[in-house]
Fold this protein.
Amino acid sequence: MRALIAAFRLQLRVLRTDASQIQTLAMVPLFTVIFVQIVRHAGREDLTGYAVLAPALIAVWALALQSSGEVIEEDRLQGTLELVVGSPTPFAYVVLARVLAVTLVSLVAFAEVWLVSWAVFGVVVDIHHPREFVLTILATALATAGTATIMASLFIVTRSPRTFQNSLSWPFYVVGGVLVPVAFLPDWLQPLSTIVFLSWSADLLRASLAPESIDDVGVRLAMILLLGTCGFAIGFALLARMLRQARRTATLGLA
């Protein structure tokens, strides 16, 4: 536990000294304006909540994906990757703690989108179920950090992690129903969405904005956490395998 806390605090210090790692947050206002303007132009002001939530979820996943690669890349460039991997604490736990630190910081995006929608459009999106809204955000943060460890395993064996970062972002947004609900996706794609935690998060967040009562809140929160836990378990196994391969081929520290 001490090592996890140390890794968490280390990443917070890194963020304070290198703001470029959270530059995605600077794009959130732009995405918010674009999405809200789209639904307003279409005469669907009732979908403003959807347009406001989407940029926040995009930022959370994008920053987690970025940080899972940067943790590997920066340690590799600084020559500390071998030391971290050789420590008694499983490397997957270190990655999880550092990505979780970034993910929690990225939750600022939710405040950004509400502020921008009010400042630019004069629109205040009501949250009719604040408790469920907050619980969903926290569950999403944990699931995001857990799932990002899968991506970290890919970055161990590649010299260009940013290539994967750029290509793995938008497919998750589409399959996860971040802007367009899963129900409107093609039939063949909908079953795949059920195993993507973002689809459960987006649906529950949208439901928390509506005045109607929310069904099966506990089950839906549990699914977010379950999928995040499964993602971490897969990431843990893949990281262990990739590290063994990197040690065997003596490529762990190659940049």
About this structure: The chain has one domain: 2-249. The chain has a mean pLDDT of 86. Residues 2-249 form one domain. The two ends are 30 Å apart (CA to CA).
